[in-house]
UniProtKB/TrEMBL annotation, chain A:
Coiled coil start-end: none
Gene3D superfamilies found in the cross-reference section: 2.30.30.100
Similarity annotation: Belongs to the snRNP Sm proteins family.
Protein name: N-alpha-acetyltransferase 38, NatC auxiliary subunit-like
Organism: Branchiostoma floridae (Florida lancelet)
InterPro entries, sorted: LSM_dom_sf, LSMD1_Sm, Sm, Sm_dom_euk/arc, snRNP_SmB/NAA38-like
UniProtKB/TrEMBL annotation, chain B:
Family that this chain belongs to: Belongs to the MAK10 family.
Basic residues composition bias: residue spans: 579-592
Encoding gene per record: LOC118409828
Subcellular location(s) of the protein: Cytoplasm
Occurrences of domain NAA35-like TPR repeats (ranges): 361-743
Name of the protein: N-alpha-acetyltransferase 35, NatC auxiliary subunit
GO biological process, one term: negative regulation of apoptotic process
């Protein structure tokens, strides 16, 4: 990209408007962590007792979390009573309603 | 295989309506989800294994690093996608939220029976009354556009009426299911609803399909008789003191009986309306009147029913047999609407209104011509009636097999309509072109071609007001091609006729008829913009100008042409008949479109008055053209009249013409505001005079008369110098009439 004459400017603009996805070299540690969770399954517990499971798509400074293909569980998710989840699709959980965030660690699964 | 089953389990299959774009991108989550499942587990039941790891703290601190407004997302996910997410814990979007007020356990019907929280037999009268009233309330809420799952089917009894042992409860449950089924079918059949009007999803609930209508009404009647006996036995006998207990019992039984009967009458009425060829309408109407009388009793006895604790769940009544959250799982993944169940008294008021509207609907079967049906539809729609009454009107009048009232083929109805409109020779027996097979073929082809746009036109008037406007704009395209066809048929017929009888003409006969409808639609389209409050006040000028200078002008000349054709026909018939011209000089039929001409003139004058007055206001600097930042007047003008562009006659009037019209520089001496006020005054006065002398003083005519009169006085005051110096803009008061405002000076 640097070899292009205008590439530098383009990259600058991209960075400025935060559209750059290839910034692993300069990104802060927190950003890298967040990025590593993108497109992974998250389980979010909400203040009203519901639990959402979905694919982590987006977040911001206020910890608002957007989950894709999201499913809603009313009962305690660890209690596998076979509760049918409700399909929500794309859902945004406001940061101040989040109690707990869990991440589905597949690497561990594979070892098992 | 392992991957597939895992996928399904997590709901990432096609049923998830919102597909997140990340799944199409490079780092597909499918790979992520491919958790190897042990084969043994897979055979029994595909199970997903999660390995959850708490990252709350990590996540939250990482988020802190983001800047204000910065989004952490994948390349395929942007702000646009983010916008379509539903927001959790927002009461409007998050239907699941409702479930978490208090720690109530949500039980379905079976569970509730097992736990003994619902009774299957020996329900008390207050319980029954309460349940019936709540069912009626939820039915009304459904009719107002909410989903069945969140309204009617929150009643557990409706989930499986078979297991109910209480005869009364069972009969009512079946009755309500039948009602829901009938209503749904009628609304579907008429198809004059949009998503904002009505939800047809039944979520797989059974609507008592295994029981016949007759059986259900029979059951209702049996129970009704039974209660009636109780009513009689507890009735006050002469000279006998009743103890309060018996008296209460009596009142409760009366309340219960009226409700049972109401359900039965409503059900029977709807069944009657669905009889072929409108044969059940008279019966239906009678039943509706009876049902209306019962509503009075019901309203007075609402307090006898078991009442929910309204402080706990203000938006949702929870009494025995109801569980607002029982269907939470069935709700669509898309935008779940927040449902507030309407109150019991309000529901009864709604039914009262519904019965009145249905009573009005019944009148349609007394109409014979399609033009009158259209007028009836337009008139009926003005009060913004509910979806059920709109649908039934369609079902009764036109919905069956393209026939009017299920008997007259639509094409023949149209033939009759054109004949009554302007007597084209091609439709008059004994004229040459009527009997010529070639001409007949032309006419039949044209009328067949007209069936679709005209049945659509009727259907459009069944839609809600806002959708009507949109659809009227579109139907102009269809009518434009019909107009073309009409001109061709007219020309062909004319050349055939002129050969045989050089004195007779067949010019623009069908064309005039089509043009008449086009103009009516155009006027309706513009006026509905006023009713729907779409225009800004600075747009009024060209809207009224267009109506006054063009559309009404065209309409009036079209109507007079139709009248001239009629007279020509009349004269011709006289001539044919020869000698006996004395007696039929003034025929009984009179001049068919005259009423329309007069009202058209009045409305034209009204529009003229507004247009002139506005012109004066601008000159007086009471009104100022806004400074447009993102558009300009021409863009707005062209947008407002865009649907007219598809029509050849009348042609779209370009913006430049409007500009020429309002440019006053060319006048010398320069025009004064007063000049325009004088003209406006004249216009309003003319409208007032027409309305005052109009023979048929309907409510509409009286209202318009009042509007014209008030506006006349207002402009007159203005001329006399009242509030002359004020520069504040006039107010447009639509409270009297929703289309033609009263001007108020401030």
């Amino acid at each position: 990209m640097a070899s292009l004459s205008s590439g530098g400017t383009y990259a600058d603009i991209k960075r400025k408007f935060k559209f750059d996805t290839d910034t692993s070299t300069q990104e802060s540690e927190g950003r890298q962590k967040l990025r590593s969770w993108l497109n992974k399954s998250l389980r979010v517990s909400m203040t009203d007792g519901r639990t959402l499971i979905g694919v982590f798509l987006c977040t911001d400074r206020d910890k608002n979390v957007i989950l894709g293909s999201c499913q809603e569980y009313i009962q305690d998710p660890d209690n596998t009573s076979g509760e049918d989840p409700r399909v929500l699709g794309l859902a945004m959980v406001p940061g101040h309603h989040i109690l707990k965030i869990e991440y589905d660690d597949i690497t561990a699964n594979q070892i098992m | 295989m392992a991957e597939e089953s895992t996928m399904d389990d997590r709901g990432l299959d096609a049923t998830a309506s919102v597909e997140h774009p990340a799944s199409v991108g490079g780092s597909s989550p499918e790979n992520v989800e491919a958790v190897p499942t042990p084969p043994a587990v897979q055979h029994a039941q595909p199970e997903v294994r999660y390995n959850w790891k708490d990252i709350t703290q990590d996540f939250l601190t990482s988020c802190e690093e983001l800047e204000l407004g910065e989004l952490m997302h994948d390349a395929n996910f942007g702000l646009f996608e983010a916008m379509s997410a539903i927001e959790m814990m927002d009461p409007k979007m998050d239907a699941g939220m409702l479930g978490n007020r208090g720690d109530r356990e949500v039980l379905n019907f079976q569970q509730a029976i097992q736990k003994g929280t619902v009774k299957l037999k020996d329900l008390t009268a207050p319980e029954l009354i309460g349940i019936i009233d709540t069912m009626l309330s939820s039915m009304v809420t459904w009719l107002e556009g909410h989903s069945l799952a969140q309204t009617v089917f929150t009643c557990l009894y409706l989930h499986d009426p078979e297991v109910i042992e209480d005869r009364c409860m069972r009969a009512v449950a079946l009755g309500v299911l039948k009602l829901v089924d009938l209503i749904k079918n009628n609304v579907n059949r008429a198809s004059v609803f949009e998503e904002e009007d009505f939800q047809t999803m039944t979520y797989g609930f059974k609507l008592a399909g295994n029981v016949t209508d007759v059986r259900v009404t029979g059951m209702l009647r049996e129970v009704e008789d039974e209660i009636n006996r109780k009513v009689k036995s507890t009735r006050c006998k002469q000279g006998e003191e009743r103890d309060p207990q018996t008296e209460l019992e009596h009142e409760q039984n009366v309340a219960l009986q009226s409700r049972m009967k109401f359900c039965r009458l409503l059900l029977t009425a709807l069944i009657a309306f669905n009889k072929p060829q409108c044969s059940g309408v008279t019966d239906g109407k009678r039943l509706l009147i009876q049902a209306g009388e019962l509503l009075e009793v019901m309203k007075k006895t609402v307090h006898h029913g078991a009442h929910p604790d309204e402080t706990a769940t203000p938006d949702f009544p929870i009494i025995m047999g109801f569980e607002p959250l029982v269907n939470q799982r069935l709700l669509p993944p898309t935008f779940p609407r927040y449902t507030k169940i309407i109150g019991r008294e309000a529901a009864m008021e709604y039914f009262q209104g519904l019965l009145n509207r249905l009573g009005q609907v019944c009148e349609v079967v007394n109409i014979s011509s399609i033009h009158t049906v259209l007028d009836f539809f337009i008139e009926f729609s003005k009060a913004s009636p509910c979806v059920l009454s709109r649908s039934l009107l369609q079902v009764l009048a036109v919905s069956t097999d393209r026939k009017v009232f299920g008997t007259l083929p639509f094409r023949e109805a149209l033939r009759e309509a054109v004949r009554a409109f302007n007597y084209p020779p091609a439709l008059i027996p004994r004229s040459y072109v009527f009997n010529n097979p070639q001409a007949k073929e032309y006419v039949d082809a044209f009328l067949s071609r007209a069936v679709r746009p005209f049945s659509n036109l009727l259907q459009i008037h069944g839609h809600n007001r806002a959708r009507q406007r949109d659809k009227l704009g579109h139907i102009l395209e269809d009518l434009s091609s019909l107009q073309d066809e009409a001109d061709k048929v007219d020309a062909a017929l004319h050349s055939m006729m002129i050969k045989v009888d050089p004195q007779r003409q067949h010019l623009a006969c069908f064309g005039t008829w089509v043009l008449y409808h086009i103009l009516r639609i155009m006027i309706q389209y513009l006026l509905s913009g006023l009713e729907l409050e779409l225009y800004s006040t600075h747009e009024y000028q060209y809207v009224f100008w267009y109506l006054y200078e063009f559309l009404y002008g065209w309409l009036l000349s079209t109507l007079s042409r139709a009248e001239a054709m009629y007279q020509e026909h009349d004269a011709y018939m006289e001539q044919q008949k020869g000698g006996s011209k004395k007696k039929s000089k003034k025929k009984k039929k009179g001049r068919p479109p005259s009423k329309e001409i007069v009202l058209g003139q009045a409305e034209q004058s009204l529009c003229g008055g507004y247009y002139k007055a506005i012109q004066g206001f601008y000159l007086d600097e009471r009104l100022k053209k806004p400074v447009f930042e993102f558009d300009n007047e021409q863009v707005r003008y062209e947008h407002r009249f865009a649907p007219f562009a598809s029509i050849v006659t009348p042609p779209l009037v370009p913006y430049s013409q409007f500009q020429d019209m309002v440019a006053l520089e060319k006048f010398s001496p320069p025009l004064q505001p007063a000049d325009f006020y004088v003209q406006a005054c004249k216009c309003f006065q003319q409208a007032k005079n027409i309305y005052e002398s109009f023979p048929n003083q309907t409510k509409e005519v009286q209202t318009l008369c009042k509007v014209a009169k008030t506006n006349f006085v207002v402009v007159k005051l203005l001329l006399g110098g009242h509030k002359r110096e004020s520069k504040s803009p006039p107010e447009w008061d639509f409270t009297e009439h929703n289309t033609f405002p009263i001007i108020r000076l401030t």
